[in-house]
């Protein structure tokens, strides 16, 4: 089935992205994650489950990284990510690989990169609702790579002291932290994301460091004021005008 495409403005350094109008599309969580990554000009970043390439694209504008490698299982989605790289003339900075995350250690080599970022499927395979569209279902449910194996593979390709940035839902926070520890990824910074201050945090971003001593900093981000206007801290993160 040939899917219709639409073009969206990422409102950052002139970046634009092609998306499936009737299939997988990125969410604001992907943009939020890309805005939190910190690295040096020598670092290679691997984007696990890169989808249409939105995080990979934004990382080239938001960080001074040397290169970004996006790994995406779905062939049509990976092809769209490659098209988006070319569409933005970023072939010298971004490489898209159509492969399973589970094969990343064999493809890239163990202890080969400095940073891994991931906006994974939020729902366990046994969780309730599944979308009819298989493309969307794969992006929402852990049907091909569960959280434990994702973290294991991230740890395997990270160098000693390398960092993982992952965004997830607060309902699974304990599980993410526990399995990160098991994969030798020490949680170092936890940012609780509140849609509004009057509502509970529904999302979190966790930064982990491979084989690091304990020591966790907890922050918060409130995205919107009660009147619906974006907060100053969110505007700063999203490069909006204050």
The pLDDT mean sits at: 89
User: Roughly how many Å is the radius of gyration?
Assistant: 17 Å
Into which percentage range does the β-strand content fall?
Answer: 25-35%
Ranges with pLDDT <50 over ≥5 residues? 135-142
Shape: globular
Q: If you consult CATH, what is the topology?
A: Rossmann fold
Helix and strand content put the structural class at alpha/beta
The CATH homologous superfamily corresponds to Vaccinia Virus protein VP39
Task: Give helix % range.
Answer: 25-40%
Describe, in short, the structure shown:
With 242 residues, the chain is of the alpha/beta class.
Question: Care to describe what's here?
Answer:
The chain has an eight-stranded mixed beta sheet. It starts with a strand and ends in a 5-residue tail after the last helix. It is globular. Helix content is 28%, strand content 30%. The chain is α/β, with parallel strands linked by helices. It has eight helices and ten strands. It has a single domain (5-237), classed as Vaccinia Virus protein VP39 (Rossmann fold, 3-Layer(aba) Sandwich), CATH 3.40.50. The longest helix has 13 residues, at 75-87. The model is unreliable at 135-142 (pLDDT under 50).
